[in-house]
Every structure is written in C-alpha cells, then in structure tokens.
C-alpha cells in the first residue's frame, strides 16, 4: 500500500493515534469515573468485545499507511490489560512509527515497568493530581497514597523511561497543590503538565466555574518562580510549554478550555472495543471491530478510515468557547475513549 497524506475538511492531517486497551480502571477519580456511577454493578465491556492485540496491530499498520507516526496507549488504566507489554513489543516492530507512549496512573509501574521497557516502550505520561496524601487519596477514590505513585515515578525514571507528569486542576479541589507539585517536579527535573478540567463525558458534573485556566495557573506559578514560554516543537503539539529560567526544567499546559487547539488536532482515537473517534468530545464512533471481524480486507478498512477522516469537521472546544459553556451533547466518557 502507498503512503498517503489524508486531510480532513479543515485541512488537518492524520498523525497521531490514541488506542484505548481497556475501559476498566483501578481508580475512581471523582472527575473521571465517579464511584456513584462506576460502582460494583457497573457493566464494563466483556472481554470478547475488546480488540485483540492482533487486531490492534492490523489497524495500526493501516493507520501508519494513512500518515500516523505517533501512538499512545491509554484506557481506562492500560496496565490493567493483561500482558500489555506484548502489545508494545508488537507495535514497536511496525515500520513508520516514530514514537510510542503510554499514559498511566502509575500504580502498577513497579510490577510491569521493566517488562514495558524491555518491550520497547520509552515514554510514559503519569497522571498525578496531588502530592498531598489526603487530597490524593480523596481524589482517586480508592485511598491510594501519593507516595506509591511518587515512588513509582522515581522507579520509572531509574530504569530509563522519559516521564512527564500530568495534573488535572480543579478549582477548590486541588489548586492548592499547584505550587507544591511545581516545586517537587522542578527539583526532580521532570516535566509537569497542568490540564484544564474538561467537560468530557456526562458524568463528572463539569462546570466552567470549576476550571482553573492556564492564565491563572501561570500567574500563580510566576508569583514564586521565573518561567518563560518555549517555542512549539512541532505542528499540532498539544502542550503549551514553559521553562524555569534557573534550572531549565519544563512545565506545560493543556488548554482545551481556555485556548482550544482544534485547528491543529491531528489525533484519531480507537476505543477498546474498536470504535474510531475523531474527537474526545464525540458522541458517535465508527465500528472498526465489525469491519475486521467480518473479514474486510486491509484495503477496504483503509478506505473506510480514510473516508471517516476526510469527512471530519469536528472542533468541539472551539464551539464550546463560542457558546460560552458546555454544549449539550450526549458525549462518550473519558474512561471509555481514553484521555
Ligand atoms: N488511567 C490512565 C491515566 O491515569 O493516565 C489513562 C486514562 S486517563 C482517562 C488519561 C488522563 O485523562 C488522565 O491524566 C486523567 O487525569 C485525564 N482526565 C480524565 N478526565 C478528565 C477531565 N474531565 N478533564 C481533564 N482531564 C481528564
């Protein structure tokens, strides 16, 4: 198959693929999988609904043909997927992929970190919303100590991973952790990224008044530290990056709410049951699993993906901003599509 450049209706190329490998998580973060909804009787996807590793690899190869260069594995919690390191090993062999990353809450890194590294994974995004233990235990809904994640971050760095830490900021919930987190990760020379609380899904009770936007976080950090903006690394880079002037260590902002970046969005997403989405805020996906399992050829699957991308017009965050608030849509959940 020939390598194509496929563009959507807003001239955005397809470059990145986020693959969710499970809809399950060991955390019940209040803003993502609140306990009240994701309780003991919640029906997660049955095993045979999940894409197999072979199916994921087959699809990924087709996406690479269409221009994808970066892969990120996500979930749910991707380390809950049995033997996910084997998938990494399979994906690492695909020619044309420049970068594979994985996003995790870090709890199982002691257990699986070295296997993931041996399989070829080099980049981890580790989610951590507080270093204060009480705050973190409350937020993750499972009473897990921040010390566990901090120790696992150290472990991941010690075995060679390049690590970034992601903190979702909610006003009045964990904004008092912005400065302690900044200090801690500045000293560790680990890039810290602040994510604006987003109105993904329908279950987290999102309200604009709970969002602390980049401008306010920068102001708070600048009152203590000297930081300066850094130029974009490449087209479509999601984080707006800054650096500490003294140590050079980096902080970044994911400004989905205050400064939407839809115009340079090059990401496609596949849910763990094989639905293709072109936006985190989508409400409908294209069933690739059905295509694969009904015996369609790689060429037919490629044409279907190409069609989905070429007809893509979405720019939810821009429309939310124009609308001055959440758009009333039946959106899919973050834990299902993967962050
Ligand atoms: N379990 C993995 C993890 O913790 O990184 C991967 C999945 S998780 C859904 C991916 C990221 O999305 C996490 O950093 C999480 O904090 C973030 N996230 C979830 N809901 C969010 C929301 N409403 N707004 C902003 N970020 C959110």
From TrEMBL:
Which pathway, per its entry? Cofactor biosynthesis; molybdopterin biosynthesis
Q: Where is the Radical SAM core domain?
A: 9-228
Q: Does the keyword Iron-sulfur apply?
A: yes
The protein's UniProt keywords, in alphabetical order, are:
4Fe-4S, GTP-binding, Iron, Iron-sulfur, Lyase, Metal-binding, Molybdenum cofactor biosynthesis, Nucleotide-binding, S-adenosyl-L-methionine
The UniProt entry, under Pfam families, shows:
Mob_synth_C, Radical_SAM
User: Its biological function?
Assistant: Catalyzes the cyclization of GTP to (8S)-3',8-cyclo-7,8-dihydroguanosine 5'-triphosphate.
Name the chain's protein: GTP 3',8-cyclase
Species the sequence originates in: Aeribacillus composti
- Gene encoding the protein: moaA
